[in-house]
Amino acid sequence: MGSSWLPEDAEGKTLALVLGCGAAVLLLLVVVVVVWTRRRRRKPFDISLEDINNDPISVKSAPTSRTPSPKLPKRLSCPDAFQFPKQSLLVRSMTVDRVPDFTLPPERVQPRANGEKGANTTPLQYQQSLIGSLQPDLYSHSSSFSEEEDNYLPMSTYGRLWYSIVYDAAVEQLNVTLIKVKDLPGRGSHRFPRDPYVKIFLLPDDRTCRTSKVRKRTLSPIFNENFVFQVSEDDIKNRVLRFSVYDVDKRKVRHSLGHVIVPLRDVDLGHVDTYWSDLEPMTQALSSLGEIQMSLCYNPQTEKIKIGVMKARNLKHADFDQDTRFYLRVQLFYGRKIHRTKRTGSRGASVEMDMNESLSFSVAGKQMDSCRLEAALMMTAQRNGGMLTHDVEYGRVVMGPFMYARGEELIHWQEMQAQPRVPITRWHALTSNVSHD
């Protein structure tokens, strides 16, 4: 009876069963604790919006350990309105049946002395009388053309220009006033407005000019600008004034709109009068020195420019005696450096001359934008029985790219480049810095 009733192998199996159950229970407890801990951690995120709104602690923006901000009493926007009893509250607005009657204070006018002229005039008349006391005749020019006559002038094709001229012999200054330009042709078929400006030349010195301001988006610009030229009294009658009107487009390209040629020998320079003249296109605006007809032809294969010299006409300032002769000198420039010089044969001086000669220059295609041609009509004078001979430049024409030429000369050069191996012929106005008396 002292030994166990269970066999040894049964006792071992029982012990193993008890240990396995204990381990399972322990593992189950661990799982329960882990699940409970995770749910505990996720519980603040599972709170509904309604619970948050009902919980006064959860809506605090600061920890409970922080001292809350002091609550200050509300300030009234109009405290004076509540300092009186209820029966005497201030009224801030009211409604009325009609606008109350009121009258403007009497107008105060500077009084005049008794017996003074215009003592009973209105304020506007009084101001006008003050302006009149400045004597505007001292500041404005007398005019031989009134503004009212502008409405009765005939229509102009290219536009009309107003100006005034006066010469001060004491200081040898020519004062030119550019007043306005009207009825310029618009851009395109829709007559869009232009940006015009005017350049004023005192020929034959066309390198020195005066330029007006640019007037934006208009076909009838008003300038009212004064320009001064220094010229001697002996030379003033031999000069010609030229107004050239230009337009600058959005690409900064200049377009010629017309010119006005004014020989000063036909103008009374002692009186300040206002004149008007119709603009003429480039083909009709002749230079005071005359014109020369030339042709240009460029052959890209041989890289040569062929210049044809045809005619010269309207030579006005030449001294036509039997000893004076003309020839054309053509120079090829690269920048400011003369590369090659050629000339035609000389001919006797006359108003119109036929030359019919050709000259050629070698120019590489890559150098076409950096070179220019200067054709100068030279006058050879013989004096002292033919012992002394000297050449005088009568007039010149500069043809080349945009860097060196403008107007017809620039167009002629561009047409030569656009149509290789085709002679392009044009008339060019002669210009010069030399005065011919």
From TrEMBL:
Organism: Littorina saxatilis
BP GO annotations: calcium-ion regulated exocytosis
Upper lineage: Eukaryota, Metazoa, Spiralia, Lophotrochozoa, Mollusca
Entry keyword set: Membrane, Repeat, Transmembrane, Transmembrane helix
MF (Gene Ontology): calcium ion binding; calcium-dependent phospholipid binding; clathrin binding; phosphatidylserine binding; SNARE binding
Domain C2 intervals: 157-277, 288-428
InterPro entries xref list: C2_dom, C2_domain_sf, Synaptotagmin-15/17_C2A
SUPFAM superfamilies: C2 domain (Calcium/lipid-binding domain, CaLB)
Listed name of the protein: C2 domain-containing protein
PROSITE patterns: C2
UniProt-listed SMART domains: C2
Domain of life: Eukaryota
GO cellular-component term (any): plasma membrane
Family annotation (Pfam families): C2
Regions crossing the membrane: 15-36
Region Disordered, annotated ranges: 102-121
